[in-house]
Amino acid sequence: MLRPSHFTAVVLFALCASIVFGITQRETPRKMVRYGAYCFVLFVGAAIVLSWVMFLIAR
Amino acid sequence: MATPQIRTGAAPRNPSSRGFVYLPLIAGWLVPGAGHFLLRKWGRGVLLATSIIGMFALGIGMNGKLHANAHDILDLLGLVGDLGNGLLYFVSRALSLGADQVQVTTGDYGTRFIVVAGLLNVIAAVDAHNLRTGRKSA
């Protein structure tokens, strides 16, 4: 059974979802790559920011 | 007098491409990436198939739950998401893959991976349909 850390799971999730979003939401390969990278950064960045927010709230 | 030809967004780009217009949609739902393969979009099909099948496999590997019935609204939504995986879902159910009950944290991650893989597969299948009808240019 796979037991990834929470952050590893976030990165895997973001990678797969960003690839699909990039391919399906844009028309040219260049725009697909840019949009996929944008989604990936937003997914992972939002997870990190929200994690810190929850950490600070919980203290 | 010649009438001007008005091209709508839904008109096929290639008038010579005939056949069942919903085939890429149905094939893409049943097998991730198959809709794009039918349209000869090999690179996109491989990337979509790898992402969606990989996400589903990760979910199963994390002991995620495959929803089998709908006791309440959340179960129903999970079942709808799982059904988006097409044949992956039915084959996995037949092979009794996945957990019946989520007992560990990673199982909860896995359940979400499986549901989201199904939803992404629906998006990919609709994209193949849009390519087929000409609503999406390339």
Give a description of the structure:
The complex is a heterodimer of chains A (59) and B (138). Chain A has one domain. The termini of chain A are far apart. In chain A, 85% of the residues lie in helices and 0% in strands. Chain A is an all-alpha fold. With 138 residues, chain B is mainly α. Chain B has one domain. The two termini of chain B are 34 Å apart. The relative contact order of chain B is 0.22. Classes of the chains: A mainly alpha (59), B mainly alpha (138).
Summarize the entry for a quick read.
Chain A has two helices and no strands. Chain A is an all-alpha fold and 59 residues long.
Mean pLDDT of chain B: 89
Spatial separation of the terminal alpha carbons of chain B = 34 Å
**What is the CA-based Rg of chain A, rounded?**
14 Å
Helix percentage of chain A: over 70%
Q: Total number of β-strand segments of chain B?
A: 0
Spans of chain B of at least 5 consecutive residues whose pLDDT stays below 50 are: 5-12
Helix fraction bin of chain B:
55-70%
Low-confidence stretches of chain A: none
Number of domains of chain B: 1
Oligomer: heterodimer
**What are the secondary-structure elements of chain A, in order, as H or E?**
HH
Shape of chain B: elongated
Helix count of chain B equals 6
Structural class of chain A: mainly alpha
Radius of gyration of chain B: 18 Å
Number of strands of chain A: 0
**Strand coverage percent of chain B:** under 5%
Please give the structural blueprint.
The complex is a heterodimer of chains A (59) and B (138).
Chain A: H1 6-25, H2 29-58
Helix pairs in contact in A: 1-2
Chain B: H1 23-30, H2 34-38, H3 42-61, H4 73-83, H5 87-94, H6 105-133
Helix pairs in contact in B: 1-6, 3-6, 4-6
